[in-house]
Amino acid sequence: MTSLIALGAAGALAFTGCASGTGAAGGDLLENGDRSELTIAVFNGWDEGIAASELWKAILTERGYDVTLEYADPAPVYSGLSTDDYDVTLDTWLPITHQDYIDQFGDDLVDLGAWNEDAKLTIAVNEDAPIDSLEELAANADKFDDRLIGIEPGSGLNRVTTDDVIPTYGLDDLEYITSSTPAMLAELTAATEAGENVAVTLWRPHWAYDAFALKDLEDPEGTLGDAEGIHSFGGKSFEANFPTLSEWLTDFTMDSELLYSLENAMFNQAETDDYGPAVEKWISENREYVDSLTL
Q1: Comparing C-alpha atoms, which of 113, 110, 105 is closest to residue 82?
Q2: Is the pLDDT of residue 18 over 70?
Q3: What is the pLDDT of residue 270?
Q4: Distance between CA atoms of 25 and 17, rounded to whole angstroms?
Q5: Residue 281 to residue 1: CA distance in whole angstroms
Q6: CB atoms near residue 28 (< 10 Å)
Q7: DSSP class of residue 267?
Q8: What is the percent of the chain with per-residue pLDDT over 90, rounded to a whole number?
Q9: Sign of the C-alpha dihedral, residues 116, 287, 55, 60?
Q10: Whose CA is closest to 215, among 295, 122, 288?
């Protein structure tokens, strides 16, 4: 396997990382016109965004960028983008999940387009659960220990679940537990290992669909919305500070199968939250695709 060190040396021949000037905000400029220092904001617990951000961090590091990933909940991310405290985020779901934030901060942001069009909010249960629809959940709540397991309180999925799913399907008597995505996955793992029923808020694409035998509950009232696009959003000065990267991210696409394979490598196969080696290996196995992202 070719190491990222060797690849980085090759990349440096084409994209010299030495400063050729100084940006308006005081950062060094690369020869392609971009500032060298880049901060990517990553939503806590949203694995597809973590995967995409780690991938781009590795790609850009090869090309001489100094990339920092900063984790936060959506509200401070969009606020920070609007004031240039962050440069870009890669996990904006539209037109439903994060639309409230775009309505609030969108005048100071730039939409770089959708890189995946298959995003979908779901309520998932174990595949052999005795129900198939959200319409059946309230009447069968006791079979799920009268609980619905959620993720981060500040997430768009939590807002949709609280504001739309629960009142529409009369789920107010269920204990709706919100904490974090890792905590939700821990509950899912424990229930699966114990052979118990479990209901969780989830979304596609997510590696849990490969790791567990799950099914999505039907949503006849459409409370969770249709499939959405996952967009990259730049901050207030992103296009001016990163003209080349702006073009790369505008052209960036990644289908769900590729994304699943990256997520599995990072979250399911590795036993560490140091994702660098897993991403390095994945890049070596998908070099043609990775190289196409910066043409």
Answers
A1: 105
A2: no
A3: 72
A4: 18
A5: 7
A6: 17
A7: I
A8: 78
A9: negative
A10: 122
What does the alpha-carbon distance between residue 73 and residue 152 come to, in Å, rounded to a whole number? Answer: 8
233 contacts 113 by C-beta, under 8 angstroms: no
**147 closest CA partner among 135, 138, 160:** 138
**What is the rounded distance in angstroms from the CA atom of residue 245 to the CA atom of residue 60?**
9
- Burial, 257: exposed, middle or buried (Cβ in 10 Å; 0-12, 13-18, 19+)? exposed
Which residue has 């039907």 as its token pair? Answer: 218
Instruction: Give the pLDDT band of residue 25 (cuts 50, 70, 90).
Output: very low
Higher pLDDT residue, 211 or 240? Answer: 240
48 close to 19: Cβ distance less than 8 angstroms: no
The Cα–Cα gap between 29 and 21 comes to 5
pLDDT band at 27, cuts 50/70/90? Answer: low
Q: What is the dihedral of CA 70, 71, 72, 74, to 10 degrees?
A: 90
Q: In angstroms, rounded to a whole number, what is the distance separating the alpha carbons of residues 194 and 184?
A: 15
Q: Are 127 and 217 in contact (CB under 8 A)?
A: no
- In the chain the first and final C-alpha atoms are separated, in Å, by 23
- Looking at residue 218, the DSSP 8-state letter turns out to be B
* Contact present, 241 and 35 (Cβ < 8 Å): yes
Pick from 230, 232, 197: nearest CA to 215: 197
Strand-pairing partners, residue 27, are none
Strand partners, 93: 230
pTM of the model: 0.76
Q: What is the pLDDT of residues 58-80, one digit of tens each?
A: 999 999 999 999 999 999 999 99
Q: Please say whether the beta carbons of 16 and 28 come within 8 A.
A: no
Q: Give tens-digit pLDDT for 150-190.
A: 999 988 889 999 999 999 999 999 999 999 988 999 999 99
CA distance 76 to 93: 16
Handedness of CA 117, 290, 81, 246 (dihedral sign): negative
Averaged pLDDT score across all residues of the chain: 90
